[in-house]
Write a structure and sequence with these properties.
The complex is a heterodimer of chains A (about 120) and B (about 110). Helices cover about 0% and strands about 50% of the residues of chain A. Chain A is mainly β and about 120 residues long. Chain A starts with a strand and ends with a strand. Chain B has no helices and eleven strands. Chain B is mainly β and about 110 residues long. In chain B, the strands form two sheets. In chain B, strands 2, 4, 5, 6, 9, 10 and 11 form a seven-stranded mixed β-sheet that branches. The chains are: A mainly beta (about 120), B mainly beta (about 110). At the A-B interface, β4, β5, β9 and β10 of A face β4, β5, β9 and β10 of B.
Chain lengths: ~120, ~110
C-alpha cells in the first residue's frame, strides 16, 4: 500500500525556469509533509516542510504548496539551477501511535536541470 | 552544530554474519530513526528510539534490532545476514518538539556477499 506517491519518475527543466515536483498521499492522518534532496549513496538533505494547517511555505528558492482536499502537495524551485539536479523525495508523517519518528516516503523524482 | 554521523560508512559482510551500525544524532536531538534504502523498495522505516525506548517499529523481521544509549547515540544490529540485506542504512535524528523536521546522516553502505 503506497501511501505516498510521486508519479513522475523524472523531470527535466532548463536552468532559470521553474521546476515543479508533485506528490500525492492517501492517508488522511498525515499532518506534516517534508521534501528532501538526495544524491546517490548519500543521506537525504532536508529542504522544506509544511504542516497541514498551512497551504504554503516558502524558503528562498523553494516553495511547498499543500492541497489537503486533493491530498496533493508540490515543491516549486525558482529559478532552477544545475546544482539542483538530484533525486527529490517527498515524505509524510503524523505524531503519535504507530507513526512516532516514522517518515513515509514517495518513490522519488529525478530532477535534471540543463544549463 | 555537527550533523548526524554514522559509522562505518562502508561495510562488506558474508551471509550468516551479523553487523552493528552506529549513529550519533545532532546534539540535543533525542529521537533517532533508522531507515533502509534499496533500489526495489525505496526508503523504508526500520524503527525509532526515544529516551532509550523503542517507540515504533517498521515491517522488518526480528533479525533487525536496535538500541539507544543514555547519550542518545543509537546502534542497529542485523543478525544472520542475507543477500537481500545489502542496502544503504540511514539514521535520522530530530527534536521531538519539531515533528516537521528530521535530519539524516550520510548512511552506511552494507554489501552482503
Amino acid at each position: 500500500d503506497q501511501q505516498v506517491k510521486q508519479n513522475s519518475p523524472s523531470l527535466s527543466v532548463q536552468e532559470g525556469r521553474i521546476s515543479i515536483l508533485n506528490c500525492d498521499y492517501t492517508n488522511s492522518m498525515f499532518d506534516y509533509f517534508l521534501w528532501y534532496k538526495k544524491y546517490p549513496a548519500e543521506g537525504p538533505t532536508f529542504l522544506i516542510s509544511i504542516s497541514s494547517i498551512k497551504d504554503k511555505n516558502e524558503d528562498g528558492r523553494f516553495t511547498v504548496f499543500l492541497n489537503k482536499s486533493a491530498k496533493h502537495l508540490s515543491l516549486h524551485i525558482v529559478p532552477s539551477q544545475p546544482g539542483d539536479s538530484a533525486v527529490y523525495f517527498c515524505a509524510a508523517t503524523y505524531e503519535g501511535g504507530t507513526s512516532y519518528g516514522k517518515l513515509t516516503f514517495g518513490q522519488g523524482t529525478i530532477l535534471t536541470v540543463h544549463p | 552544530k555537527a550533523g548526524v554521523t554514522q559509522t562505518p560508512r562502508y561495510l562488506i559482510k558474508t551471509r550468516g554474519q551479523q553487523v552493528t551500525l552506529s549513529c550519533s544524532p545532532i546534539s540535543g536531538h533525542r529521537s533517532v530513526s533508522w531507515y533502509q534504502q534499496t533500489p526495489g523498495q525505496g526508503l523504508q522505516f526500520l524503527f525509532e528510539y526515544f529516551s532509550e525506548t523503542q517507540r515504533n517499529k517498521g515491517n522488518f523481521p526480528g533479525r533487525f534490532s536496535g538500541r539507544q544509549f543514555s547519550n542518545s547515540r543509537s546502534e542497529m544490529n542485523v543478525s544472520t545476514l542475507e543477500l537481500g540485506d545489502s542496502a544503504l542504512y540511514l539514521c535520522a535524528s530530530r527534536d521531538v518538539q519539531r515533528v516537521e523536521t528530521q535530519y539524516f546522516g550520510p548512511g552506511t553502505r552494507l554489501l552482503v556477499l
